[in-house]
Structures are given as C-alpha cells and as structure tokens.
Amino acid sequence: ALTPGTDAPTWPPEFATRYRAAGHWRGETFGGMLRERAAAHPDRIALVDPAPRRRTWTYRELDEAADRLAAGFAARGIGRGDRVVVQLPNVGEFAEVVFALFRLGALPVYALPAHRETEITHFCSFAEAVAYVVPDVHEGFDHRELAARVQQRTPCLKHVFVAGEPGGHTALSEVPCEPSGPREGPRPHELAFLQLSGGTTGVPKLIPRTHDDYLYSLRGSNEICGVDAGTRFLVVLPAAHNFPMSSPGWLGVLYAGGTAVLCPRPDPATAFPLIERERITMTGLVPPLALVWTDSAAGSAYDLSSLELVLVGGAKYSEQAARRLEPALGCRLMQVFGMAEGLVNYTRLDDDTETVVTTQGLPISPDDEIRVVDDADRDVPDGAFGHLLTRGPYTIRGYWRAPEHNRTAFTEDGFYRTGDIVRRLPSGHLVVEGRAKDQINRGGEKIAAEEIENIILAHPSVHDACLVAVPDDYLGERTLAYVILRPGAGPLRPVDVKRFVRERGVAAYKIPDLVAFVDSFPQTGIGKVSRKQLRSTAEQR
Ligand code: J2J
Which stretches make up the AMP-dependent synthetase/ligase domain (predicted)? Predict the structure, then answer.
C-alpha cells in the first residue's frame, strides 16, 4: 500500500486541517464520485466517443464498466498503490481504465499519445509500473510494437493491455469480470494518479495528485467556468493532459453531471462537424489551435452556435489573436494559465474584454498563495516582473520520488517555483511575461532543453549541444539546436541530427525544428553556457 508522504512530500498537517475546514477538501474520491453520480442520474450520458462509430456511456454504464474492469485488473494482481502507465488517445476506454484504477487505488501514470520508447521506458521503470495500457494503432503508429520493446527493457512490467486488436498482448476487452463484492477503495488524502510535468531536467518528473486536492480543483474550475449538467464539453487536446482533464476538462464535466465528447483529432475539419452534431457548449484549446479555429470559423459551413465558452491556455496567447476569437466563434473566451503541478488561473466570465484579452487570469482559490519575487526571493511590487511562486490547496509540495530536485523546485516553506515570469496587476490578475526555466513551450507542448541536449550529446560526432527557443508566428516558439561538433568529426547535416533524435524514440514534437552548427557557445560571467545570448542570436537569424 502506498503511504502518503513517503514517495512525495505532502501538505503539513496544519495546512491540511485548514483546507478541510475551509471545505476545499471534502473527503471525496474519484471512485466514490462516479458512484454517486451514477446513483443520482444513471441514464444521463456521461461520455461520447464519436469515432469510428458513435459509442456512448451513461453514468451507470461508465460506473459498471469501471467496476468490472477493476475486478479484472484485481484478478490479474493489480492493486492499491500499483502504478499503471496509461497511454491512450481520446477514446472512451481512457475513462473506463482510469476509473477502474481509481476504484482499486492503483495509480494511472498519464503518458501522452506522442510519447515514444525513451519516455515510456522511463515512466515504466521509474514508476516501477506493473502494467501499460495502449491503443493498437494510433495516427499510423503501432503502439503494440512499442509496448513489446518497452516490456523487454522493463522487467517490472507484467501486463500490456491493448484497447483494440491485441497483437501478442492482452485485449482490454477481455479483462472485465464480475466484481466479487465491495472493495475497500483508496482514502481521499491518498494519491489518485501521477501526472507528467512539462519538465526542465534530463528526465520528466512525476506529479503526485491526491483525490482531495484534484477534486477541489475540478469543483473550483466548474464554478468559474459555469460547468453544470447541461455542459457538453469537447475534449480536443489529448485527454491525458492536465488542461483538458481538469480545467475544467472532462473530469470536471463528469463531476458536474454533464457530457464529455471525445474529439479524435483537433483540426476544424474533425471538430466543427462534432460541435454541430453534438451541440457542444464548451472546449479548451492551445493558442495555435485557437488561431486555426478562429481562421476557419468564418468560411465554415458548420453551425457552431451552440458554443458558449472556449478556454485558451497552455502557452502565451497573443492579444491580437485573443481579440479575434469571440467575434469569429460567436462565444465567450476565457484565458487559462495552469500547470499540472497545481495552480490554475482563469479570467472570469464577468471580466471585461480588455482583461480577458490581456491577462491570464486569477487563481481558482482564495487559498492559493501567490508570490512574485526577484532573483533573491524578495517580493516585488504589483506591476513589476518577477518569478511566480505558489502554494495552495491543490498545488503539490514536491514531485514523486525526487527529493534532490524538490530541494530547488520548492522553497523551504513549500512554495512551488513555477519558473514563470509574471506581473501581478492590482486586481490580482496575472500576466505571463516570460520564463526563467530551461523549458521550451512549443504551442503548449513542453520540451525540457536538457532532455533533448542529452540525446544529441549521445551522438558520436557531437561535442556539445544547446537547445533554445526561437519565436514562431504560429506555435509561439520552435526549437533550435545549436551543436558543436567534435574536432575531426565527419560532416553532419541538420537532418542527421534530427534523425538521430527521432531514432532514439522521443515524441515528435521534441525533435529539433532547426539545427545550427557553431564553433563555440557564448559563456556567462561564471563560465556557464549563456542560453540568453544564444536565444538572442537565434532570434536574429
Ligand atoms: C503562458 N504560459 C502558460 C498561459 C500554461 C490549464 C492550462 C494549461 C496547463 C498547462 C494546465 C499558460 N500563458 N495561458 O495544466 O490545467 C505554461 C507556463 C506553465 C506551464 C505548465 C492547465 N498556460 N503556461 O499548460 O503543466 O509556463 O500545464 O508553468 O503542461 O505552461 O505546463 P503544463
């Protein structure tokens, strides 16, 4: 069994007591939540998976599917505290699997569909996962082959479950069986799952979220966004990502008794007909998608009039683009600035247009503590640029099994160092102005510079590598890898570096967009590589 606090720092008792007393932590669990909703409104539609043929789940059906799948997982030895890497695209099985695991107290580890052998092997071995759940073929890529390779490299991995044709593995559809009676589920203060961090270091960190804290963030998000039983939410971004899962996301919508519709692909050609057919009222997009949707809406033959609210976040949304969204899509815009580690900010439904298009909103909770500080951790006045630090009822106090990293990623008194540079307005609204962390935000997809540099460094002809962001009209940022070759190394082309990274097996969005060969890197005063100077060189290119 997983003892809270041993694998990750948790909230000090006085904070936990306060968050409970304030009614933030209500002692609910995900398993219990679904059970209650199924009892209250069994025949309402919880979930729609429109492709390739439309499937629906009522609340009762989802509840029963989770029970039967939980029983099947348990029969295969999966139980409380066990980790299970879940890499599923936007399909109904995603919800069945994670609710089954929630019921058991087993912890889903959310991988993205784009992740490949390097990332998945790391998640499986670091988390000591006992099982890995994959689709058969997704976007032309065979995840069963990936799973076979990962299994070879990861002895702890006992099971591979496939949603679809199983190949040599176990079909997910064969797993469910009759539950043998009520089982003792996890406690509300225990971990519910491990979410992925965008990462700033060589390997992605795992984010431990509890039932209590995450359910509070859902409840708060629902209130701010006006999510209720009538909400029909389109899950456009990958369902495993924190934004479409919880801000307010498909879990928020299930909490409120609404309907989540899973969009298989994010392009307007896929999404717009679904909006019309399913009478979608709400969705969440990253800025590049919001741009494409805005541009496509004008000439679109589809009826988008059911849309009431579009949330945009994950990366900086330009003011000009933000101004165009409401008129183009005929709905309200809400900016959201969140992070899988916790803190989520939203502009509010009653904010004026200026505020909505120029700020990234206010925290969910009155108990979200916000500090904006200088390099020496001294608070700066409102309006001044500074590092954003935060602590609160749904922000983690440490990454999972990462005591060393936690010492620098958190302050002594438990504030998370977000790595974001912000300004706080007198109204409390935050404006994201930049980033101090070594992370590149490629249209909402996060890339840890060091992770890719380490891969490039493994190339025998490479002496040193540095990955920086270059501005991009569409994505906001793209990646540029500066590479120093070893003396006497044979000639290398940009395409060779890209291929090398791809062949190592990483998500396609992490493959450098551009590669430039240089003789040396600019140094800072203390002899470190100056990323700042490299970035400005890159901008001039
Ligand atoms: C600028 N940067 C932003 C924004 C996130 C809701 C929404 C987004 C995420 C998310 C999330 C930004 N403007 N509007 O989990 O629940 C950058 C910041 C932040 C990092 C977190 C949610 N919204 N960012 O994007 O864990 O740098 O979560 O620290 O993927 O994205 O990334 P991630």
Answer: 34-400
Which amino acid does the sequence have at 390?
T
Ligand 1 contact, 314 CB (< 6 A): yes
Ligand 1 binding pocket includes 200 (Cβ within 6 Å): no
337 Cα to the center of ligand 1, angstroms: 5
Cα 286 to averaged position of ligand 1 atoms, centre (Å): 9
Pocket lining: 246 vs ligand 1, CB cutoff 6 Å: yes
Contacting residues for 308 by C-beta, under 8 A, at least 6 apart: 226, 281, 282, 331, 332
CA 342, distance to chain mean position in Å, is 11
Nearest CA to ligand 1 atom 28: 339
Ligand 1: does its nearest atom lie under 6 Å from the Cβ of 446? yes
102 CB neighbour count, 10 Å cutoff:
24
Task: Compute how many other C-beta atoms are within 10 angstroms of the C-beta atom of residue 176.
Answer: 20
- At 275, is the secondary structure helix, strand, or coil? helix
446 Cα–ligand 1 center, Å: 9
By alpha-carbon position, which residue is closest to atom 2 of ligand 1?
A: 315
**pLDDT tens digit sequence for 473-523:** 999 999 999 999 999 988 899 999 999 999 999 999 999 999 999 999 998
Q: Decide: pTM greater than 0.80.
A: yes
Phi, psi of 464, rounded to the nearest 5 degrees: -155, 155
Residues 303-344 have pLDDT tens digits of: 999 999 999 999 999 999 999 999 999 999 999 999 999 999
